[in-house]
Design goal:
Structural class of chain B: alpha+beta
Strand order of the largest sheet of chain A: 1-2-3-4-5-6-7-8-9-10-11-12
Number of helices of chain A: 0
Oligomer: heterodimer
Order of helices and strands of chain A: EEEEEEEEEEEE
Distance between the termini of chain A: 11 Å
Number of helices of chain B: 3
Largest sheet of chain B: 4 strands, antiparallel
Radius of gyration of chain A: 17 Å
Helix content of chain B: 25-40%
Strand order of the largest sheet of chain B: 2-3-1-4
Order of helices and strands of chain B: HEHEEHE
Strand content of chain A: over 45%
Largest sheet of chain A: 12 strands, antiparallel, barrel
Structural class of chain A: mainly beta
Number of strands of chain B: 4
Shape of chain A: globular
Largest interface: A-B, 26 and 23 residues
Helix content of chain A: under 10%
Number of strands of chain A: 12
């Protein structure tokens, strides 16, 4: 998974032995100060509700690793929760992340999304979602950033393209192996 | 006696031919399978089993149809574990015999 937005560029390669958890590498480049984080990320499914035509999930996402900025290297990590609910027509999600890496990075951020599918496709079709993402980073100059985006997926490929209210591009790509 | 032997041989080969053409389909009704991207794992994990010929995913009806290879079967427990491992809940498992391997009219 590759995520690029106004705050960061992130690469996440993970393996899910079961639906309950995944483990893998995470690399983050913070666009503001060009600091980097490389670590091992563990995602735990805390709760799942499978409904008749819906699914809701709650995850704990944590990582430990090293942060680097301008030659300084320090241990660091982050933790946060991610929740989502979706039907074949509607989508909503929320996630937050608390990051700590001594003098290099100490931040808190959260984001929420709502989405609607303009059409409901069958399995194997090209699926399209129109989404609105709101990012909140209390320590940043732009506290709130709003990003309309389009999510499209077909088979094991999922891509997202959007542009925030301050003109930054959002480009995300996920591939299931 | 010779006629009876010939009839027995003919009957044996007829039954063999019928058995080879018979196809077994296992329909699994699930809950929570709302996302195509998330359901990709089902087709992959169930489809790579030796005894499975094809897997069809029906998001509208929350149905996973597993078509078995000739004279092959899959245990309910094995199939359940694969589907639960992908994060979906199972409502029911129904087995049906089809006239031919290619037929879905059972």
């Amino acid at each position: 998974m590759v995520d690029n937005n106004h705050m960061e560029n992130m690469l996440h390669i993970h393996y899910s032995p079961t639906a309950k958890y995944s483990v893998g590498y995470v690399g983050i480049n913070m666009r503001g100060d060009e600091s980097q984080f490389h670590g091992v990320q563990l995602n735990n499914l805390l709760w799942r509700e499978n409904g008749d035509g819906s699914q809701a999930n709650l995850y704990l996402q944590s990582a430990l690793g090293i942060a680097e900025n301008d030659g300084d290297v320090t241990p660091g990590g982050f933790t946060g929760i991610a929740a989502d609910w979706e039907t074949r027509r509607y989508f909503a999600s929320y996630s937050n992340r608390l990051t700590y890496a001594d003098d290099i990075e100490e931040s808190y951020g959260q984001n929420a999304r709502v989405g609607i599918a303009p059409y409901v496709g069958d399995f194997g079709d090209l699926h399209t979602w129109l989404m609105l993402q709101v990012d909140h980073h209390p320590n940043e100059e732009d506290n709130f950033v709003v990003t309309p985006l389009v999510r499209m997926f077909k088979g094991p490929y999922l891509g997202e393209v959007g542009m925030s209210n301050n003109g930054d591009a959002l480009l995300n790509l996920s591939i299931r192996f | 006696m010779k006629k009876i032997m010939l009839m027995a041989i003919a009957l044996f080969f007829s039954l063999q031919a019928f058995a080879a053409e018979t196809g077994r389909i296992v329909d699994v009704k699930v809950q929570g399978m709302v996302c195509d991207f998330c359901a990709q794992g089902i087709q992959k994990t169930v489809g790579k089993r030796d005894e499975v010929k094809n897997v069809k995913v029906d998001l509208d009806n929350q149905l996973i149809s597993v078509q078995m290879k000739p004279n092959k079967n899959i245990d309910d427990k094995v199939l359940s574990d694969l589907i639960l491992g992908n994060g979906f809940s199972i409502i029911s498992i129904n087995r049906k015999e089809c006239k031919t391997q290619e037929s879905t009219e059972c």
